[in-house]
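Lecture notes, part 5. Sequence design as translation. It can be helpful to think of inverse folding as translation between two languages: the language of shapes and the language of residues. The source text, in structure tokens, appears below.
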């Protein structure tokens, strides 16, 4: 087997999310070489066999690999970990997933110095913070998919109300990818026009949209047991922005000094990872929600302080 290409992406965790992420990377042809890795080698092999039936649509090579292959990847995506059962919050997963993250990142040493680590497993904001610590990479190279998925869910709802394309809406869900997230309503625009001017929503309507957005994963998990396609598409978009140095502004989980944790706020994404945070001008209510979201994350992190 030849060595992985310099532009390879390693996906660690080949379950529902990891396999869907690999499928998105394959169809979008983000890099020539995608490596899938799982502790359950038989299942990983079967996922790779299944995925390889789709490679006729692209020139991407998909193969099963090891953590040693991941050491050489340009982007390492971590989807390995327990998923929510119906009724679980994302924070309920922390004990199991922190252990898995720690063991994977210690086995990945020495990690390629310019690698970007993308955390997808939940609770994503907390795992991103610990991955910054465990990986030894600069904080700017370790990010979480964060509220990009929630923002896309929000945009879908708003776009359908306005009967315009999702891409015409600029709106961010910020804070935790979880229960304490909030919508930055005051900054939302439709092609430059303030959203609330073209769609004058009442407070109750805004709350309802924010709740539907926040609860969407739970609604899906209650019926099919997991979500995968949205996060897979989001992961492919993040990888494209990194590999092609797009400098796209996306709401991603990244280290924010003023909050002392990782949470989602708009950031410029490129080949070096988080190039910079992008300013967002919130009103007082939104700022308070964001601060409360950071506080709730830090409270959980405080319970694992010995790991930091
Ligand atoms: N960030 C998001 O927006 C988002 C969206 C959906 C799901 N998720 C999260 O993604 C994670 C995975 O979800 P899923 O539905 O794919 O779960 P899954 O159970 O289908 O897959 C998880 C995989 O991780 C593997 N694994 C466990 N420990 C490992 C280790 N040490 N090394 C390698 N592989 C290991 C398991 O064998 C399993 O195949 C969960 O934490 C879930 O909450 C995140």
């Amino acid at each position: 087997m030849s060595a992985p290409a310099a532009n390879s992406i390693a996906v660690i965790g080949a379950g529902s999310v990891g396999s869907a992420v690999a499928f998105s990377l394959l169809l979008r042809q983000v890099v020539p070489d995608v490596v899938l890795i799982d502790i359950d080698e038989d299942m990983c092999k079967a996922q790779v066999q299944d995925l390889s039936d789709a490679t006729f649509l692209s020139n991407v090579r998909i193969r099963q690999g090891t953590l040693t292959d991941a050491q050489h990847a340009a982007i390492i995506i971590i989807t390995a970990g327990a998923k929510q059962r119906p009724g679980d919050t994302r924070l309920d997963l922390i004990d199991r997933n922190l252990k898995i993250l720690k063991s994977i990142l210690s086995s990945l040493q020495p990690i390629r110095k310019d690698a970007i680590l993308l955390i997808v497993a939940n609770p994503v904001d907390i795992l991103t913070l610990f991955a910054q610590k465990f990986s030894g990479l600069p904080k700017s190279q370790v990010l979480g998919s964060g509220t990009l998925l929630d923002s896309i869910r929000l945009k879908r709802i708003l776009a359908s109300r306005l009967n315009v394309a999702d891409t015409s809406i600029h709106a961010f869900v910020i804070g935790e990818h979880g229960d304490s997230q909030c919508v930055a309503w005051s900054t939302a625009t439709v092609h430059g026009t303030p959203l609330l001017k073209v769609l004058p929503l009442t407070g109750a309507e805004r709350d309802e949209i924010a709740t539907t957005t926040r609860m969407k994963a739970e609604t899906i998990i209650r019926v099919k047991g997991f979500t995968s396609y949205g996060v897979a598409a989001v992961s492919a978009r993040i990888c494209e922005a990194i590999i092609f140095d797009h400098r796209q502004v996306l709401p991603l989980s990244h280290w924010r000094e003023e909050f002392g944790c990782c949470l989602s706020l708009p950031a410029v994404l490129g080949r070096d990872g988080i190039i910079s945070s992008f300013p967002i001008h919130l009103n007082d209510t939104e700022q308070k929600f964001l601060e409360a979201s950071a506080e709730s994350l830090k409270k959980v992190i405080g319970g694992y302080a010995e790991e930091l």
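The translated text above is only one of many valid answers, since several sequences can fold into similar shapes. Residues 12-18, 38-40, 43, 79-84, 93, 97, 100, 103-104, 120-122, 124, 145, 149, 177, 226-227, 231 surround nicotinamide-adenine-dinucleotide (CB under 6 Å).
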